[in-house]
Amino acid sequence: xxxxxxxxxxxxxxxxxxxxxxxxxxxxxxxxxxxxxxxxxxxxxxxxxxxxxxxxxxxxxxxxxxxxxxxxxxxxxxxxxxxxxxxxxxxxxxxxxxxxxxxxxxxxxxxxxxxxxxxxxxxxxxxxxxxxxxxxxxxxxxxxxxxxx
Length: 149
Fold this sequence. Notes:
Blueprint: H1 5-15, H2 18-28, H3 37-49, H4 61-70, H5 82-112, H6 127-132
Helix pairs in contact: 1-5, 2-3, 3-4
GO molecular function, one term: cysteine-type deubiquitinase activity
Protein name: UBP12 hydrolase
Keywords: Hydrolase
């Protein structure tokens, strides 16, 4: 596998984020069209969840192989930045989920025969957004009068 401890750290943290783990495991039961990073992550989380031993090792071979196929940044045996990997993984999953929502809407429109505006498609929030998205505010406070800008 090479140097994948950055990946291991992120995967363990995400697995122990209960809302994320539950959504990934629920994704496992949905019918699949093709292999993706999310399907590989779901398989990996399912292997961990169904592991009979309390202590053990589950090699993420399939997940790492898929990651390396999808992004050349991770297609080497060098140490990577865990933060970059986390951002890439969450953004990739969110993009995939948004694309699936878009496909479902289009399939529904074709069946119903109605044509609606597709403006809302890009702003649809996924469960990744619901779990991890936040708002960052930056305030400057005057030390003399304590006014906030």
